[in-house]
């Protein structure tokens, strides 16, 4: 018994030391890109989990190739069988809204809750492009905040060119919300505005999510641990500051957050919504800024907002407001 207790104490005490000596470990934990769920699935064959979908790759920069799935809207389903990637690309110019789906940490674009959301958006009549950032899935390279943002920005401009002026929306979930707002800021700095942002289970900053994690809370009472944590994030250049980004973004915004979210606290999503309302007021814009809150009784938690039977109507109404 004494040996077991001593072992547990040693393991507990070693964590801060290991993080101090090997700060890159925290980045790997945040991205969790090494978890390539679902295993044994060929990402080059999206038809194994998702119909009416074409797989392709984009070279976002030298040495970096990212995998993307393009899922068609319902209106194109009958025409899709046997069609080439070029045909799929041409359909992006049909005027229908295009969603670029930016997933959260870990796993791939084939993860079940991601696929189920894509099915809903596709059935509702939208194109969906699901991106695996560098280092995720079958994409090459190593993930970083700057690199993941660069991948999303490249895809956004690529889609914009193909869509011939049709609306292109960024949908970010969890960690992907940080990629989405970073990308929107880059677009705005380039003199344009993203057509719409949908943030599902968004956080204020990634550091606050890490600090709120149950494992991290076990160490917060240790002198200097919190400052060590922020120092490591700074060394890794990992910030994902949604709160700061939304203070300048003037894109239409929809926030989706469940009150029983056990990964990103609901109050973070609420705070971002309030920041965006203030930004709208300061910039004197009339763009829609909305938030849908889900009762804890529904059990949607962090990954299951796609279970909302009214979700397609929520999205449809939001997009309709953009055209008014």
From TrEMBL:
Q: Which regions span the lipid bilayer? A: 6-35
Question: What would be one Gene Ontology cellular-component term for the protein?
Answer: endoplasmic reticulum membrane
One GO-annotated biological process of the protein: phosphatidylserine catabolic process
Q: Which SUPFAM superfamilies match?
A: alpha/beta-Hydrolases
Named from the GO MF annotations, one term is: monoacylglycerol lipase activity
Keywords (A to Z) from UniProt: Membrane, Transmembrane, Transmembrane helix
Residue ranges constituting the AB hydrolase-1 domain according to the UniProt record: 97-202
Question: At the top level of its lineage, which domain of life is listed?
Answer: Eukaryota
Pfam families for this protein: Abhydrolase_1
InterPro entries, A to Z: AB_hydrolase_1, AB_hydrolase_fold
Q: What is this protein called?
A: AB hydrolase-1 domain-containing protein
Organism, by scientific name, is: Perca fluviatilis (European perch)
- Classification lineage: Eukaryota, Metazoa, Chordata, Craniata, Vertebrata
């Amino acid at each position: 018994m004494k040996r077991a207790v001593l072992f547990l104490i040693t393991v507990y005490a070693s964590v801060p030391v290991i993080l101090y000596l090997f700060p890159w470990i925290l980045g790997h934990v945040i991205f969790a890109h090494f978890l390539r769920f679902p295993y044994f699935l060929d990402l080059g064959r999206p038809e194994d989990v998702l119909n009416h979908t074409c797989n392709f790759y984009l070279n976002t920069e030298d040495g970096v190739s990212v995998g993307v799935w393009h899922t068609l809207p319902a209106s194109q389903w009958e025409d899709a069988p046997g069609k080439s990637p070029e045909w799929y690309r041409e359909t992006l110019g049909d005027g229908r809204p295009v969603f670029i789906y930016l997933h959260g940490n870990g796993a791939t674009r084939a993860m079940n809750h991601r696929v189920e959301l894509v099915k809903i958006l596709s059935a509702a009549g939208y194109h969906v492009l699901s991106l695996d950032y560098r280092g995720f899935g079958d994409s090459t390279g190593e993930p970083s905040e700057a690199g993941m943002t660069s991948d999303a920005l490249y895809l956004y401009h690529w889609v914009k060119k193909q869509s011939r002026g049709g609306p292109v929306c960024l949908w970010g979930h969890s960690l992907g919300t940080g990629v989405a707002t970073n990308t929107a800021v880059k677009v705005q700095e380039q003199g344009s505005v993203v057509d719409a942002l949908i943030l599902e289970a968004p956080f204020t900053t990634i550091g606050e999510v890490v600090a709120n994690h149950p494992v991290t809370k076990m160490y917060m009472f240790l002198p200097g641990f919190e400052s060590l944590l922020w120092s490591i994030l700074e060394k890794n250049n990992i910030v994902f500051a949604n709160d700061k980004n939304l203070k300048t973004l003037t894109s239409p915004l929809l926030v989706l957050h469940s009150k029983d979210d056990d990964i990103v606290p609901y109050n973070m999503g609420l705070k971002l919504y309030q920041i965006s309302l203030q930004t709208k007021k300061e910039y004197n814009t009339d763009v829609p800024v909305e938030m849908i809150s889900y009762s804890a009784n529904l059990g949607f938690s962090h990954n299951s907002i796609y279970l909302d039977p009214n979700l397609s109507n929520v999205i449809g109404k939001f997009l309709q407001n953009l055209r008014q």
